[in-house]
Design goal:
The structure is a homotetramer.
Chain A: E1 3-10, H1 14-29, E2 34-42, H2 46-56, E3 60-62, H3 65-70, E4 76-79, H4 86-95, E5 99-102, H5 110-123, E6 127-129, H6 137-147, E7 154-162, H7 184-200, E8 203-211, E9 216-218, E10 224-226, E11 232-239, E12 244-250, E13 259-266, E14 269-274, E15 280-285, E16 295-299, H8 307-310, H9 320-335, H10 345-364, E17 368-369
Parallel strand pairs in A: 1-2, 1-4, 2-3, 4-5, 5-6, 7-12
Antiparallel strand pairs in A: 7-13, 8-11, 8-17, 9-10, 11-12, 13-14, 14-15, 15-16
Helix pairs in contact in A: 1-9, 4-5, 5-10, 6-7, 7-10
């Protein structure tokens, strides 16, 4: 009989639903140390919470997240509320001794993220931030190949996360445009940064180039509101391992829906990847025979853990929601102490630090060292 | 409060598990007319059944599928047992008034499939066969585009389902090599046929070319066994709509894991698709401006129902298991009478008829008409 | 000082021009045994011939190809006139002791092609038919890899040559629709057949499926003319080496401009190729490490002779006209006795025999053996 | 009768040969205002020059380029000698009133390039620098589409030119590593810069990031030599039209042979291109119907001038040497006054200015304005 783990979820929007998919699928797909009970869901109004409870299968609903967080019967608090609320919620949950799972970004500002990470560490609870693209078996494969020296000594990197969901200048001003923590670099460039460090290790220095292209947006009340956050955030990078590189976060890249791409090259090989076809990793090896060299399209399969949990045959492909299930599974194993936290609050803080350093560098027009690499 | 639908599952292997994933996900992702209860799971031994019960979350377990089928508390019987058993199980379930969901192939022989289809129709229960590739939103899009005339009058078709899981001549003889119902054409060529008729409508005449490449295989007891089923099954096709085409089923296609591809062209446009990248559909339109024409890579998104149920943003991609959830959802809606059965036993029979006609044509070396088109 | 070879060209249309490009480029790019002089060009009227002479740089022009063919100062006659004239021209040139280079098809009917091939062999002159796609270094690479056993024992083949230049039903009736020798299979399916035998060796048996889709076309005089030739010509194939396969020639494949593709698989590997990206060959090897297997995109480079003659750096890419230069170079070397004829009249006859056997099989609806394999 | 233009070529290496191919092909393919005579070829020794004369078909050979430049019978001097000699040669040719065609880079230092450009302009002769990638019909198409507003207002750009020909740390020190004018940014990043301005117009500000990865190389005499030039040269860009972007030049990009890529996006569309498949341009238009949008693979064809000069059918593809023929044709037309110089010395100077500004910015770690935009 598995130990039960009782979950309290805050927020029932897109990401709340995705988390529930993740918990449900993870328990079917993986052999996990816990049986997760969907104990309670909190939302702004009781009506919303109750509707979500029924739709998603929670036992209880509440419009008072603070009360839920203090409920001694719950083990894990999962936060998918707007970014600005993450800190208060997480600190309260930590204070109540709960494990805390928080959607990215951990907090709009790194100072807040730091406070959260430190509180979690002091309390000894287990945390997780939702950087789900890292949960792709092909990214794990890429990291393993790099670590095993299959590319030789790493020399360079190009990363990108480009979409076009903010390309329309008539799109309304939202919390994503908030000067505190908003912008393309923070919103999706953060994924590019997470992937870069996941693969190559710490970034030590950055030069930022953050640009506001759409200077004002409708405020939804008939007027317009000035936008100060970036639509494109680029950076040149130096890594601790000696490599250099660049990343870009871009939410006005017309035509692009999920261009989370990278190319990394070393003395003996190279990898090329696009999230547009995220069940593939392209590998070039200088060890291949003369006249037979080329980028090799490796398709995800049971050789690439944990793909085999989802399907015993290669080439069938995982979907976006499967990545969330892998994320959940890793977190539950970390709670059980079976493995380290895959991407804890400290890691979430790290991303915020990188973002802020790049933004600061962009403003000053100078290279900056990244703290705490 | 949703009506409950109590499920009895036979079989707990790869496909049994995939079905459970499908039911679980479908209920999270869709707003379905029923709440499905995982009531009972049957397997060959009680130990297997009990282990599966615990792992997959069923209420009860049994080693007696006949008893389960007769349990008046159950509404739906889901069959993922070996092909040779499908018929007895389905007929018993139909006799007990249950809705029946059966993995493909419906039965190794079309005569058996016919008996099953007719029994189901007489009983008035709802049936489903698991042709999950058809559940891809991009295939629905392709069908819609063809039906709407976006390609003009359809002239030709090329279909393929090639993998390499039987390419190793040292792979053991299995039930898939059984002369009654085995072979590449039946096992995966069936998908190519299903897709062809899904898109273009009835096939009226066929010429088959079925080839055994690996003539004997290890029997697992130190000897070898002669293989008479095909490793490659090809056919030329005529469609009722006037188009001609070809398909191929191939399980010795070295290097290919999921080459379920098609290309269809008409007087005004063409579509090209590969299951290797199944979140994309490539569309050529003669209506595009001169000098600007080309195959357009359409990426799956919320515009392509029911993608939006899984994810609100385009380009994030569905996985293989998501297709199963769509299949389950369609079946549950059909049970509720909301829509026609997506792929019922009659449709399953149709595929078996096509397969047998192609095999017969291959043996006789002549074109044959397909019955009951 | 190189020996001179004096060329007489018949025809100054698209192909005539392409041949001149080929001769000119071949002499710059290769170190050839001859210096080719553009001695004389023949066309239907003196005005056309003279205009072509001036534009293309020939020494003389004539409207009397018979006279030119008999000119003792000429060494090679190059025929790019309409197909129906190939035979008379070639036989006259052979009778005059000239080497003969003839555009494909050698002749509309295999009986004529046979007469031409036999006459050439009796006369001991050197012949060439223009199957330029075979001159691609990546096809030579494919052939070498197959011959060297890099794919193991060959099991299967899929070939295709699809374009859309006859997709418009309002396109006028031309010599390409002539019942004697016309149709998609003859016009471009011939390329698919040539590639199939180039790679795998002789085809021994065929089953044809030749279809007329556009049954009548404008005759250019205000009326229409019935079309009896195929718009799509398909065939199932058996090869002498034991492999089976299929090819298709298709000139109504909307959206396709140059889909001369093939996929070949053996016990140890596979190749995939598309003329749409003809500087690439995709290679899968079962010898690659577990978890690292995949189709490898080999880009043409100096490792793939004679690419290096055109460019010392890989990845720069050859163009269509460069393939013609390679064809010319091979022919000139064959004339000099340095190498066998790359694709002589006997080989051209072979293609016509395959085409006619497939057409005959299509009419009879039965498998047929191919003569003289 | 066409006017003759007598050519004197300096240098008979890779680029010298490519130029001869270009002149030869251009005259066959285009209807040009001149007949070019290969009058004289100069190389370092008489033996080399004479060998090149015979191989390439020049009338005369010399080991004294100064004498050749002064020969009153010559009209055009074509310089493919080492970069360091370009200036003296060009100035002498200009002084002698010759038109001058010079391989890229115009000169290692922009000060020299300026002197050359100004001398040419004062003398009123016509000049050309060999930026052949710009001669691709698909790049002309891209520029036309941008100019015509098919992408709307341009917002951003990413350019790249990556190869791996210097990836081997044991590769010898060459003139390409010379501190004056060497490095990846100058050698191939120059192409990325040329393409960026070709498409979007003037770059006004840059921030450079130029990195030496392989710090020393064998000197060919048993020792090593320190390398100070960059192996990777990156830059952030601002364009006069308001767009921002980035480029990278990289000659240690393992696995890449010709990754001259760009992506440009505007308010209404986007283009994506890779020189690895340079006969294709991928176009996204927000004007396409909902649910039917996607990047469209436009294949080069007769609609994209001057492709039709080479081949009357689309999809047959141009090769690298064909681009050189287009370059030559454009220059000859410019000499005849039919069109402006496609890429004259002033344009070559511009590229050197950009390179030096980026290098200077990299050293200072600050944004710099580009002179003379």
């Amino acid at each position: 009989m598995k130990k039960k783990l009782r979950l309290g979820l805050i927020g029932s929007g897109f990401m709340g639903k995705t988390h529930v998919f993740g918990f449900a699928a993870a328990q079917r797909v993986f052999d996990l140390p816990y049986e997760v009970e969907l104990a309670c869901i909190a939302d702004v109004t009781m009506a919303q919470a109750e509707a979500a409870r029924a739709a998603l299968g929670f036992q209880n609903a509440t419009d008072d997240w603070r009360q839920m967080v203090d409920d001694p019967s719950l083990d894990v608090i999962d936060i998918t509320a707007p970014n600005a609320l993450h800190k208060d919620m997480a600190l309260a949950a930590i204070a109540a001794g709960k494990h805390v799972y928080c959607e990215k970004p951990l907090a709009p500002l790194s100072a807040d993220a730091r406070e959260m990470a430190e509180a979690a560490e002091r309390a000894g609870i287990k945390t997780q931030v939702g950087f789900n693209y890292l949960c792709n078996p092909m990214l794990s494969l890429a990291r393993e190949m790099i670590a095993a020296g299959e590319l030789g000594e790493i020399r360079g990197y190009r990363g990108l996360h480009a979409e076009d969901y903010m390309a329309d200048a008539n799109g309304q001003f939202t919390f994503r445009h908030d000067p505190a923590g908003g912008g393309a670099l923070a919103d999706i460039g953060s994924h590019a940064l997470a992937t870069a460090e996941f693969l190559l290790g710490p970034i030590t220095r950055v030069f930022g180039d953050c640009i506001t292209v759409i200077g004002s947006r409708p405020d939804g009340k008939g007027g317009t509101r000035t936008v100060e956050t970036d639509d494109v955030g680029r950076a040149f990078l130096r890594f601790e391992n000696g490599a250099s590189g660049s990343i870009e976060g871009n939410w006005i890249a017309t035509g692009r829906k999920m261009q989370h791409d990278f190319e990394v090259y070393g003395t003996k090989g190279a990898l090329s990847f696009s999230q547009e076809r995220f069940n593939e990793l392209h590998f070039f090896s200088t060890g291949d025979a003369k006249g037979r060299q080329g980028f090799r399209r490796i398709e995800a399969g049971p050789d690439h853990s944990p793909y085999g949990r989802f399907c015993v045959a290669p080439g069938h492909q995982l979907g976006f929601n499967d990545l969330k299930a892998i994320e959940v599974a890793g977190y539950l194993e970390a709670i059980a102490g079976v493995r380290p936290e895959p991407f804890n609050f400290r890691a979430g803080l790290r991303i915020q630090t990188l973002i802020e350093t790049i933004q600061k560098s962009s403003r000053s027009g100078t290279w900056l060292a990244v703290d705490g690499a």
